[in-house]
Amino acid sequence: MQNRNVNIALVGNPNSGKTSLFNTLTGLNQKVGNFPGVTVDKKSGSCEIAPGTVANIIDLPGTYSLYPKRADEWVTYKVLLEQDEEVKPDMLILLADASNLKRNLLFVSQIIDLKFPVVVALSMLDLAQKKGINVDVEGLERELGVPIIPVNPRKNKGIPQLKKALFQTAQQLYKAPARDFIPNRELAADAIENIQVHFPSLSDYQSIHYLINHENFTLDNDKQELVESIEAKHKFNPTKTQADEIMQRYHRIKQIMTVNVSEPDPLQKTLFTEKLDKILLHRRWGYLILLSVLFLLFQSVFWLAQFPMDAIEWSFGELGGWFSKILPEAWWSDLFINGIVAGLSGILVFVPQIMILFGLITILEDTGYMARISFLTDKLMRKVGLNGKSVMPMISGFACAVPAIMSARNIENKKERLLTILITPLMSCSARLPVFTILIALVIPAKKIWGIISVQGLVMMGLYLLGVVMALIVSYVAKWFIKIQEKSFFILELPVYRAPRWKNVIVTMVNKAKIFVTDAGKVIMVISLILWALSSYGPSQRMHNVEQKYAEMKQANPSDAPILEKQRKTALLENSYAGILGKKLEPVITPLGYDWKIGIALITSFAAREVFVGTMATLYSVGDEDDGLLLRQKMAAARKTDGSPVYTVAAGVSLMIFYLLAMQCMSTLAVVKRETRSWKWPVIQLVYMTGLAYVVSWLAYELLK
């Protein structure tokens, strides 16, 4: 086995710590793709388990048993039943949770009967001990007939021992147990015997799965008909066979645990987690606590980010003014100041808020409270056609709709999954945060209620809640039009409460800031530079006429030269290519309270919503001679042709609502097409969200103006 690769599949129940173990084993040697034919993540990586022996480890989706219900569970099932053409593991690592051993041993026992070489990695032993559960690992190993290695991936404990066991199994020092965990043949003796005549390589337990799920296997028509005939001949009953199997497995598991696992008296005091859940999951107080948590989240985002944001904004204002004084008047200096510097300010000023928002969300996830939000909201979700599992993608949508939509894969019900995908973009993602921030600062007074509660923070929270409410309304309406009939189940395992891993929080904050600056920043910078060109140049005849007109006016009225110079720059901007485009769009958006500059921003932000700020920075820099002013000050001073301010409370709220509800994200449309395998749903999404945004924004403007 020296100097060769070993293919190892990592399997286990959801929430057993599989991802932590995979990351610990593979480190940075990872790649992510998709399993063929399905939109399920395919994570693989490599690690050296012994000198000269490299293991190719593939992390299979979590599953509770070998009876799959979801698309990701079918992926794992097909690999384990050797029905996947690409993934052919030589052996398995099976991660089992010691604190939920009875449930985990069901899957362990099924894997044993598949006759795969397997090493069991036993995790969460520290948590089991806190619960008063003590496991005799050696006794359990003897009973099961497979190597069991205690591990703690978070603390890197047990990893060398696990690698050694994997190497020994690869060298066939450990083999799959010869004896079945339960007498599988007795479940359907005649049918199994008949199957094995035609498929001699199958174990008794594999034969049962051929009888139950052969329709989903890669068998030719003749073999499919053969298995069907065997089922009919022996009157094979899949439901009864499965029920008998599970009952027998749990009966033997109970016997094994009686001898090898000591559990606390159930009358002993409940754990801290259970006590806390009585408060946080209370039918009344639970919802009040949830609203309070969200309230504090958005207040904190505004309050904590205010000072660094002000400092960044002031610095760029000073920098722009300084460059305008020292650089000569030329096209390249104009490009540098009004294109590059203005674009950079539009990117970096929002980094503090994005870092704080993601940091707080990571804390909620790490402590275990996020799963409680799913549990609390399941009843409400069901009324609108969803279930509690839809909440996790929706909450993830507050960060970014793209990974949020992909995370909807673990919703078993097809209709609920599709509804979740359709409404998740209505959640206020981090790309909307820069738009909300600058508009709230512009039109909402920086007042405090009772001296502590920020009005601006309340408006921000109101926008996020409005997105949720609109999503629920849309889901309620859409459920009557999507004709998919399928039973819905909501099974959720609540993780124990834990202190947040501060290193993880900081790493997430830094990574999200990097992603924003590099990914969104690239788009913002490119569009800022294109906009500078479109705003600085226009049809030569029109631009020449403007220059000539103001040259004559300056000659006739030299004393009015400063005022005329400002008017000249404004006229040049209006006659530029960007100005012409904005003017053509203006009649459509005037009913919403917007001017032509906002119209340009609506177009450019389709690439990415956060481009709005870069667009504004460029447009207000190119027609403005005072580069020392902050962008907010320039926007506050903006006037329409009749002299009225552009950014009134009515126009500002209308614009925030438009950005809240409109589908202005090409990446989201692309991922919806990928997940639904059709352009039908992205087109429906684009049409309904744009229409909804226009109507609700118009209503808001009419009510507030």
Automatic annotation (TrEMBL):
<feature type="binding site">
    <location>
        <begin position="12"/>
        <end position="19"/>
    </location>
    <ligand>
        <name>GTP</name>
    </ligand>
</feature>
<keyword id="KW-0813">Transport</keyword>
<feature type="transmembrane region" description="Helical">
    <location>
        <begin position="644"/>
        <end position="662"/>
    </location>
</feature>
<feature type="transmembrane region" description="Helical">
    <location>
        <begin position="418"/>
        <end position="446"/>
    </location>
</feature>
<dbReference type="InterPro" id="IPR030389">
    <property type="entry name" value="G_FEOB_dom"/>
</dbReference>
<keyword id="KW-1003">Cell membrane</keyword>
<keyword id="KW-0342">GTP-binding</keyword>
<comment type="similarity">
    <text>Belongs to the TRAFAC class TrmE-Era-EngA-EngB-Septin-like GTPase superfamily. FeoB GTPase (TC 9.A.8) family.</text>
</comment>
<dbReference type="GO" id="GO:0005886">
    <property type="term" value="C:plasma membrane"/>
</dbReference>
<keyword id="KW-0547">Nucleotide-binding</keyword>
<dbReference type="InterPro" id="IPR011640">
    <property type="entry name" value="Fe2_transport_prot_B_C"/>
</dbReference>
<dbReference type="InterPro" id="IPR050860">
    <property type="entry name" value="FeoB_GTPase"/>
</dbReference>
<keyword id="KW-0460">Magnesium</keyword>
<dbReference type="InterPro" id="IPR011642">
    <property type="entry name" value="Gate_dom"/>
</dbReference>
<keyword id="KW-0406">Ion transport</keyword>
<feature type="binding site">
    <location>
        <position position="23"/>
    </location>
    <ligand>
        <name>Mg(2+)</name>
    </ligand>
</feature>
<dbReference type="GO" id="GO:0046872">
    <property type="term" value="F:metal ion binding"/>
</dbReference>
<keyword id="KW-1133">Transmembrane helix</keyword>
<feature type="transmembrane region" description="Helical">
    <location>
        <begin position="515"/>
        <end position="534"/>
    </location>
</feature>
<feature type="binding site">
    <location>
        <begin position="37"/>
        <end position="41"/>
    </location>
    <ligand>
        <name>GTP</name>
    </ligand>
</feature>
<protein>
    <recommendedName>
        <fullName>Ferrous iron transport protein B</fullName>
    </recommendedName>
</protein>
<feature type="transmembrane region" description="Helical">
    <location>
        <begin position="682"/>
        <end position="701"/>
    </location>
</feature>
<feature type="binding site">
    <location>
        <position position="24"/>
    </location>
    <ligand>
        <name>Mg(2+)</name>
    </ligand>
</feature>
<feature type="transmembrane region" description="Helical">
    <location>
        <begin position="335"/>
        <end position="364"/>
    </location>
</feature>
<keyword id="KW-0410">Iron transport</keyword>
<feature type="binding site">
    <location>
        <begin position="59"/>
        <end position="62"/>
    </location>
    <ligand>
        <name>GTP</name>
    </ligand>
</feature>
<feature type="binding site">
    <location>
        <position position="27"/>
    </location>
    <ligand>
        <name>Mg(2+)</name>
    </ligand>
</feature>
<dbReference type="InterPro" id="IPR003373">
    <property type="entry name" value="Fe2_transport_prot-B"/>
</dbReference>
<keyword id="KW-0812">Transmembrane</keyword>
<dbReference type="Pfam" id="PF07670">
    <property type="entry name" value="Gate"/>
</dbReference>
<feature type="domain" description="FeoB-type G">
    <location>
        <begin position="5"/>
        <end position="172"/>
    </location>
</feature>
<feature type="transmembrane region" description="Helical">
    <location>
        <begin position="285"/>
        <end position="305"/>
    </location>
</feature>
<dbReference type="GO" id="GO:0005525">
    <property type="term" value="F:GTP binding"/>
</dbReference>
<keyword id="KW-0408">Iron</keyword>
<feature type="binding site">
    <location>
        <position position="26"/>
    </location>
    <ligand>
        <name>Mg(2+)</name>
    </ligand>
</feature>
<dbReference type="GO" id="GO:0015093">
    <property type="term" value="F:ferrous iron transmembrane transporter activity"/>
</dbReference>
<keyword id="KW-0479">Metal-binding</keyword>
<feature type="transmembrane region" description="Helical">
    <location>
        <begin position="458"/>
        <end position="482"/>
    </location>
</feature>
<keyword id="KW-0472">Membrane</keyword>
<feature type="transmembrane region" description="Helical">
    <location>
        <begin position="384"/>
        <end position="406"/>
    </location>
</feature>
<dbReference type="Pfam" id="PF02421">
    <property type="entry name" value="FeoB_N"/>
</dbReference>
<comment type="function">
    <text>Probable transporter of a GTP-driven Fe(2+) uptake system.</text>
</comment>
